[in-house]
Design goal:
Largest sheet: 8 strands, parallel, barrel
Number of strands: 8
Order of helices and strands: EHEHEHEHEHEHEHHHEH
Number of helices: 10
Radius of gyration: 18 Å
Amino acid sequence: MNKLKDLFHGDRTVLSFEIFPPKHDGSIETIYDTLEQLHDLKPDFISVTYGASGSIADNRTVEIASLIRNKYDLNTAAHLTCVNSSREEIDIVLERLHQNGIENILALRGDIVPDVPRKKDFAHASDLITYIKGKDYDFGISGACYPEGHPQSPDTVSDVRNLKKKVDAGAEHLISQLFFDNQMFYDFVDKARIAGIDVPIEAGIMPVVNKKQIERMVSLCGASLPAKFTKMMQRYESRPDAMRDAGIAYATNQIVDLLAHGVDGVHLYTMNNPYIARRICDNIRSLF
């Protein structure tokens, strides 16, 4: 298996997927069919999100990442959040990842969850990256980036400076939050390169298949909605099949444009829907 940074070489564009674990009261078997179908699409790696609460007690990220690595023989990256974890809890997860042969971590601050007391060991993702790098493990470390700026950042200049801290701490590869206007991503990459951030930056693309989904995601990450995207939603929101097909077409067009601009990689937020991932991959496979 590869460290993620080693997947990026020459003119080759990396294609990767994100999936999430079933809820803590759901069966782990529900993810098997998703993985079987995504495996057939031959992604360069699959990342697995961490539980929203950040609790290690009900988190299944390691279990699923281990399946991807050891059963499906694919590169994987396990998300790891820190804002609601102590050093001791992070140590438990790191050891589990190591024991299961998982070599890559996407290090994140994590969401501030209402009514869940924040712990004081880690304030930022850069703190987590520094902590992991100080251990005896040899994990590949990835980080997140925000083409339109982190929602809690005062401005994009401050956001890029904080991103540079992540890279200086040891992040070797970045995955962007979703966006719907490619120019936002291109402008962000230019700023990152000027700031001395020279690691691969993957573009995060989410195919939108219903209005509620996008409203929730935009409320979380603050992505702006171009006029053509808004018109698409308004026209098709009451017709589920049409909305799904329009969302797939919009994401496909984004990816075609990104590839034409020589993007380092495309990270597809699959929402555990292999049908949509397959439709998009069928549309773009010859372009990679």
